């Protein structure tokens, strides 16, 4: 009997992450990768973490079992930063686990989930594993088209939840406008669905003023956060913020899954987040570095591709979304790898086969010179008549 024969049906149809599958290829030293959405290793605060480790290890509790809800000190820090009570905070192994817990607690097989189109691939995997029906709503420069969602709701669509990355979305780079945040909140109150507002990139704003969370306008909002993009993804520390009555139910799922998140990682995050002066300066360093790289990548694409491509200029985050009309960028990916550049084809972020002429590009790990060279190689790979300029 083969392994396939004994797999649960929900697992047989679960796609592997196109991004993870690319990692082996992009590790080649000659490849400039625009594929991964990871922090620049040079910007990870290794020295500050090493300093914190000595203090944390002085308390043996950091190596012990912990509370399922999370380290009380960390819950208090997260609550203070988000203006809520600690009882509303559940610490998780990254925001990805928070989303998985929500899917287990709020979705039945066949439940409808509304997502951005394109949407975060990790969320699509979770909703597929939950056997949910996924309904995509198109994204433009102002984020999810809430008018289109309103029309679908008026026509009978009844989602259990709506999932959005409101700030600098992965993969589109778009930000949900203030007007649309209010509209989405009003729809949740009217139709009774949950909004899951995932915010891994909110601290990495390069342009404009921060926008209020959707939670400002409705109590039917569950917020997700993480330290992966501003401290270290290897720490796997994230959280969800919800009504305390809902958190009490979700804690049971977390307990059945892994008992609790790493006490050591949480203690380190307490040390780092609790040092306001250091943390604020560190985040400002990230903003300056990633902001410069975003401008370099977008400018290079506009300069080299001209009217052969369109590119979104993000106000923050780690990604931009590029369309190359008339070119199947997924089919050209092997050519791109051969030319020494990598990206994630757009089809990975849709559930309906769209995105063939689109791609996600990350500017986080490349130097300005590397990003300019990456765009030159893209021109060579995506158009067989050679570099555009």
Describe this structure in words.
With 389 residues, this protein is an alpha/beta fold. It folds into two domains: 146 residues, Aspartate Aminotransferase, domain 1, CATH 3.90.1150; 230 residues, Type I PLP-dependent aspartate aminotransferase-like (Major domain) (Aspartate Aminotransferase, domain 2, 3-Layer(aba) Sandwich), CATH 3.40.640. Helices cover 42% and strands 15% of the residues. The protein contains 14 helices and 14 strands. The strands form three sheets. Strands 2-9-8-7-6-3-4-5 form an eight-stranded mixed sheet, with helices on both faces. A four-stranded antiparallel sheet has the order 10-11-14-13. α9 links the parallel β6 and β7. α4 packs across α11, α6 runs parallel beside α7 and α6 packs across α10. It is globular and about 60 Å long.
Which class of the largest domain in CATH terms? Answer: Alpha Beta
Strand proportion: 5-15%
Quaternary state reads single chain
- Main pleated sheet: 8 strands, mixed
CATH architecture classification name of the largest domain: 3-Layer(aba) Sandwich
Number of strands: 14
How many structurally independent domains?
A: 2
Provide the low-confidence segments as ranges.
none
Strand line-up of the largest beta sheet: 2-9-8-7-6-3-4-5
- Taken from the alpha-carbon principal axes, the silhouette is globular
Distance between the termini: 56 Å
Topology summary:
Blueprint: H1 3-6, H2 9-12, H3 18-26, E1 32-33, H4 46-57, H5 72-82, E2 89-92, H6 94-106, E3 112-117, H7 121-129, E4 133-140, E5 143-144, H8 146-154, E6 161-164, H9 178-191, E7 194-198, E8 221-226, E9 238-241, H10 244-258, H11 263-273, H12 276-305, E10 310-311, E11 319-323, H13 333-339, E12 341-342, E13 344-345, E14 358-362, H14 368-382
Parallel strand pairs: 1-12, 3-4, 3-6, 6-7, 7-8
Antiparallel strand pairs: 2-9, 4-5, 8-9, 10-11, 11-14, 13-14
Helix pairs in contact: 4-11, 6-7, 6-10, 12-14, 13-14
